[in-house]
Amino acid sequence: MDSDTGSIGSRSSSPDLVVDDAGSFFSNKMFQTYCKDREEAAQAMTERCPGGGKAKTRSELNKDEVQELRLKVNSRERRRMHDLNQAMDGLREVMPYAQGPSVRKLSKISTLLLARNYILMLSSSLEEMKKLVGDVYGGAGIQSRRAAHPAVTAAAVPAAHLPLHPLAQSLHSLVGGAPSALSAAPTAAIPSPHSPPTTSFLGFHSPVPGLLKEPLHLTSSYRHFPGMPCPCSLCQPLPTTTSTLHNLSMTK
DNA sequence: TAGGCCATCTGGTCCT
DNA sequence: AGGACCAGATGGCCTA
């Protein structure tokens, strides 16, 4: 289980976590050490500095105080990482993959790479939609446009395995409602909520074997966007050339 | 058992 | 000085 924060305690590497008053998490062992050190440090502190005293430089700190400081820093770092993981979870939630108890969570690297591809795809879709909207309102007839629509003309086009993206749905309704070919599309082509994912979804290919390998990350059950498959270019994955993939995976 | 993924600790660096 | 950020090290869990 790769769960981090959200699932505090679900990960066995962080067993029996407890939360301190600052919201930090400790294993029992750590917590015991933490409490012990805290008590000792606090006691030593009151003995040495009854009035609170003024701040000491680090070189002046004794062993207990150094330990106390170390724990404080560790706690901050832990919290920082938890925040980071929460943000990662938030990102996972908006990714076009299902979440659920039976669904393996995308790894961090997979989440980031997929998010990047997803954004690129959305940007591309938006551009194409703008272009088509410009065409529609620019004089070209919808009928002729629809006739040219591959989803209409290419009835023999193999059923697309890709879901219709919401942006594409908007586009279809914009250019004259859902194409008939779409509504007639065989349901077998509709990705089921738990259909095996394809790495080509959203133009997403595994850039580096091992990073996004199947089946570990992407063959677990997941949910695509609801909608009918469409063979139109808008619904196709982005072209992913080797160089593109290289850029996707290597650029920082 | 090896490899992947992760959480945590730790020391260093930079910024306020 | 204190906090945020980062990267390396370490160890645990899980899966193939």
Short description:
This protein has helices at 28-48, 63-93, 108-136, 142-148, 150-153, 166-174, 180-183, 242-250; strands at residues 18-19, 25-26. It has 252 residues and is an all-alpha fold. 45% of the residues lie in helices and 2% in strands.
Detailed description of the structure:
Helix 1 packs across helix 2. The protein starts with 17 loop residues before the first strand and ends with a helix. It is 45% helix and 2% strand. With 252 residues, the protein is mostly helical. The protein has helices at residues 28-48, 63-93, 108-136, 142-148, 150-153, 166-174, 180-183, 242-250, and strands at residues 18-19, 25-26. It has eight helices and two strands, in the order ββαααααααα. It binds a DNA duplex (16 and 16 nucleotides) through residues 1-5, 11-15, 25, 27, 30, 55, 57-58, 70, 73-74, 76-78, 80-82, 85, 107-109, 210, 213, 216. One of its GO terms (biological process) is positive regulation of transcription by RNA polymerase II. This is Oligodendrocyte transcription factor 3. One of its GO terms (molecular function) is DNA-binding transcription factor activity, RNA polymerase II-specific. Residues 68-122 form the BHLH domain.
